[in-house]
Amino acid sequence: MSQHLPPPAFEQKIVTTDQLESLHEQLPHPIVMTNGVFDILHRGHVTYLAQARALGASLVVAVNSDASVRQLGKGPDRPINPEADRAAVLAALESVSNVVIFKDKVPLEIVRKLRPDIYVKGGDYRIEDLPEAKIVHSYSGKVVTAAFEFDRSTTKLLRKVRES
């Protein structure tokens, strides 16, 4: 007979928006934050997250809710993995301190509540185009765009699968 085991410890790394202000006090600083869909995790994602974590002592990842992924226009069948699954996979990563799911296209509320010391986005973004950057700069935080080490994306992966 199968035995029910306790939930893995990484599940406790998934937090709500309401917990972010207390996280700012609890997490070791500098706190780094990034965000994204992280639909089908690949080497590009985990490299980016490890590099972001290396910029500070803690890494909080804000992951788009299923509804916000649809707002981004990624395609009618996206996300492939539901938000709870994407959050759990991210939380299981060693480089990730906490994960929070956000419902808007851009995690402005998350940035305001967490007040990360460093905010990181992928190299396909320009800092001056990020509304989050204005918030981070308002309290003298730092915004960084990270060059991609690997040419990977969930969209490209799905295209490859669909064409084969």
How would you explain this protein's 3D organization?
The chain is of the alpha/beta class and 164 residues long. The chain has a single domain, classed as Rossmann fold (3-Layer(aba) Sandwich), CATH 3.40.50. The protein contains seven helices and six strands. Strands 1-4-3-2-5-6 form a six-stranded parallel β-sheet. Strand 5 (118-122), helix 6 (131-138) and strand 6 form a beta-alpha-beta unit. The longest helix has 12 residues, at 43-54. The radius of gyration is 16 Å and the shape is globular. The mean pLDDT is 92.
For this entry, give a set of tags.
164 residues; alpha/beta; Rossmann fold; six-stranded parallel β-sheet; 7 helices
Layout: helices, strands, pairs:
Blueprint: E1 14-15, H1 20-26, E2 31-36, H2 43-54, E3 58-64, H3 66-71, H4 83-91, E4 98-102, H5 108-114, E5 118-122, H6 131-138, E6 142-146, H7 154-163
Parallel strand pairs: 1-4, 2-3, 2-5, 3-4, 5-6
How many strand units?
6
* Shape by Cα distribution: globular
Cα(first) to Cα(last) distance is 40 Å
Tell me the fraction of residues in β-strands, as a range: 15-25%
Neighbour order of strands in the largest sheet: 1-4-3-2-5-6
Quick one: biggest sheet? Answer: 6 strands, parallel
CATH hierarchy: architecture: 3-Layer(aba) Sandwich
CATH topology: Rossmann fold
Short description:
With 164 residues, this protein is an alpha/beta fold.
